[in-house]
Amino acid sequence: MKSITIKGSERENVGKSSTKSLRDAGMVPCVVYGGDKPVHFSAEEKSFKNLVYTPNAHTVVLDLGAKKINAILQDIQVHPISDKILHIDFFELNEKKEITMEVPVKVVGTSKGVLGGGVLRLNQRKLKVKALPANLPDFVEADITELEMGNKLYVTKLVSDKYKLMHPDNTVVAQVRISRAAMKAAQEAAKAAKAPAKGKKK
């Protein structure tokens, strides 16, 4: 999985007044869990742009000067009106321990059902995967080539040796639904088939 480096500085004062001062200065208070003890730090709000405002999944290298920590974003708090980032929680990665995180679904192929007039619906835009940090994928590939009209692609078709998908077997990732135009045409064809031939006596 691709990684983003974020530069920050450790902080000792974690009180409300210190936190408010950081935010007023355009900084985001953060904390990293998962290690021997939580690590509190701050970083410029703009440095999180490529991590937060993207559909892609990334791991993070937190460069705190004296130390570098490999982590993933665990939780983020934003202001309900301004959408300003208020606080971010990270979780430190251990190369020997599996981690669970959401990654995007990447659709590949052209569905037979879509070519026949159907409409593709992507039910899951992201999936939870569990893997060692080195095996975390950038995305889960969903091949829809063989989907006929009315078919569904279940999560069981997306298995991998490198990671485990954390969803029930009946989870539908994508499906091809009959379009309104195709449905109307089928209904009209059915009516025409049932209607008596013109001029034919009853």
Please characterize this protein's 3D structure.
The protein has two domains: 3-93, Ribosomal Protein L25, Chain P, CATH 2.40.240; 100-192, RNA Polymerase Alpha Subunit, Chain A, domain 2, CATH 2.170.120. It is an alpha+beta fold and 202 residues long. The protein has four helices and 14 strands. Helix content is 16%, strand content 40%. The termini are far apart. The strands form three sheets. Strands 1-5-6-7-3-4-2 form a seven-stranded mixed β-sheet, with helices on one face. It is elongated, with a radius of gyration of 25 Å. Keywords: Ribonucleoprotein, Ribosomal protein, RNA-binding, rRNA-binding. Residues 98-178 form the Large ribosomal subunit protein bL25 beta domain. InterPro entries: Rbsml_bL25/Gln-tRNA_synth_N, Ribosomal_bL25/Gln-tRNA_synth, Ribosomal_bL25_b-dom, Ribosomal_bL25_C, Ribosomal_bL25_long, Ribosomal_L25_dom, Ribosomal_uL5_bac-type.
